[in-house]
């Protein structure tokens, strides 16, 4: 059983008082328990694809502002948000494997911010290190080599202590790497390759977003691409859906309302070795999964609902016929055998409700402390344990997840049991339930410098559940 960030009511109150200093304006507005709008009353938009401002042989140049804006999440209600490019679901950046991208961000937010390419294998100076910030009124260019397999990545803020609030208020968008091996597979493409950012929120009586880090479970409004429980019109054919959990804390447990099967084809860092039929997807904050749904199996006029355990998220309306030459092949992407591990490390995740800290190996994040040195080119086994089975003596357990910057990993086992078939590919984020130990093997192949690893339930990383590794030669 789980509950909010801290176990006891008085400790929750302490956390609220401490962390609400980041709530712009300092006032906690009156709240309602959910959006008072009819589900499926608005269409789900698709994030626009950002066009390069310039191109050269082998390189594309992009530019985006970081700025406050307003958006209509609830029909007829204007909500203040923080954005990349002025849009609540930021513009999608589509790049090709092996083709470099330079992305310049102009900070017009009014305070410091930055950008982390989640899942990107990038130089340390372009990783969005939590203390490497863009001052208000300044710009920074991030260098993304894209020397990695095709995958659904995303970009979001990583300002230390503010990452949860910034992402919650809208600083998130897709970054899609098109793999050189994908065209020959025949997967659904073009208009039938659809990115969908899933998240949640709590609104006040004026339609403003309420950020309460002490109670991240009280965010009852579910969204897809920035709209509350929208519909999406589809043709009777196969679609490739790129699902991203862009929430700051929620775990989505997704299924189709009629119990129909989906075919999972990819996880965080790209295609699986082979497609996996499934009727349920579990995505913690920051995780991605790609599925193919064949709407050609339904009569025209059918409505198919994507549901979370807490309620419906999105409805697909099958409304027209379309030619479909796409397919899902039996083999997708071969997995290179893992190299021999050079070291095994143990990490334990825990909350300290007395001091209002979140810890890794009993230490809160300190940017002046290097927690481990890792050799470039090495491969290591990490054993990560969630020790929060009884937080503050409350009798409640708290889930965590774990995200590595720079490194991608393969899950070896969960409490000694083989990972699920949908976890067979390369990942960068993994859910760890209370009392559970996950072992994975990570590869550190590319760059030198300092990178972080942390719980991607961002309220936890914001109060210290983060460590620092230095990649050395």
UniProtKB/TrEMBL annotation:
Residue intervals of the Plastocyanin-like domain: 66-180, 356-470
InterPro entries, A to Z: Cu-oxidase-like_N, Cu-oxidase_C, Cu-oxidase_fam, Cu_oxidase_Cu_BS, Cupredoxin
Tagged with keyword Nucleus: no
Coiled-coil residue windows: none
Keywords: Metal-binding, Oxidoreductase
SUPFAM superfamilies reported for this sequence: Cupredoxins (SSF49503)
Taxonomic superkingdom: Bacteria
UniProt KW Oxidoreductase keyword: yes
Pfam families in the cross-refs: Cu-oxidase_2, Cu-oxidase_3
CDD domains linked to this entry: CuRO_3_CueO_FtsP
Family (UniProt): Belongs to the multicopper oxidase family.
UniProt name for this protein: Multicopper oxidase family protein
Annotated organism of origin: Nonomuraea spiralis
